[in-house]
Amino acid sequence: MLTRAAGLVAAFVAGLALVVAAVLVVRHLTAPSEPELPVVPETRRPIVESAVRACTPLSVPLLAAQIDAESGWRPDADSGHAQGISQFSPVTWKEWGQDGDGDGKANVWEPRDAIPSQARYMCHLYEVVKVVPGSKTRLGATQLALAAYNAGPNAVLRARGIPKILETQDYVDKILKELLPKYRESEEKYQRSEAKHKSSASASPSGSSSTSPSTDPSATAPGASPSATRRP
């Protein structure tokens, strides 16, 4: 009798364990997965890091978010009005395009030329918008500089702020409200990983690594379609 009772208890416990295991598996399979963060492509990272070092208001997350909004990192992007990974109009490129890869020519389709030119132009726009109301705060200056990149500096100066152009307003919002927070989080993870790697490598006599700049001057900022420099 005791043996039979023990068998029933064992069967009950085993059945209960199976039910619990099934519930845990179902919960794991149906749990919402963490959204994947955008990252700076490894082939573009050295270019982006070098570009932001030449322009104090910029940061890796901010420039990356802007490139993402402009072209989705595609060097062959062509909207019909703007070209390349940084979406320069021909007129704006003629003035601000520079030879970044040292081959003797400024090529809008070459990221090593376009990204440093983008950073250089953005730095200029930060200076231009200083006379516009709202530019005294870090967020305000960034909003205005981005708007100037998209709509042209003259449009921002005439409007004394972000122009009432839906494309431009969506562009600024997409970068600052949607993309920048994601790239900021992504960059923080990258820097933690690099720091961990550096720490591990430093323990080895032959190992070494380095971290990269990621300070985000628009950290107080709250993020449309590829556009940029449509109107010189």
Automatic annotation (TrEMBL):
<protein>
    <recommendedName>
        <fullName>Transglycosylase SLT domain-containing protein</fullName>
    </recommendedName>
</protein>
<dbReference type="InterPro" id="IPR008258">
    <property type="entry name" value="Transglycosylase_SLT_dom_1"/>
</dbReference>
<feature type="compositionally biased region" description="Basic and acidic residues">
    <location>
        <begin position="186"/>
        <end position="197"/>
    </location>
</feature>
<feature type="region of interest" description="Disordered">
    <location>
        <begin position="186"/>
        <end position="232"/>
    </location>
</feature>
<dbReference type="Pfam" id="PF01464">
    <property type="entry name" value="SLT"/>
</dbReference>
<dbReference type="InterPro" id="IPR023346">
    <property type="entry name" value="Lysozyme-like_dom_sf"/>
</dbReference>
<feature type="domain" description="Transglycosylase SLT">
    <location>
        <begin position="61"/>
        <end position="169"/>
    </location>
</feature>
<feature type="compositionally biased region" description="Low complexity">
    <location>
        <begin position="200"/>
        <end position="232"/>
    </location>
</feature>
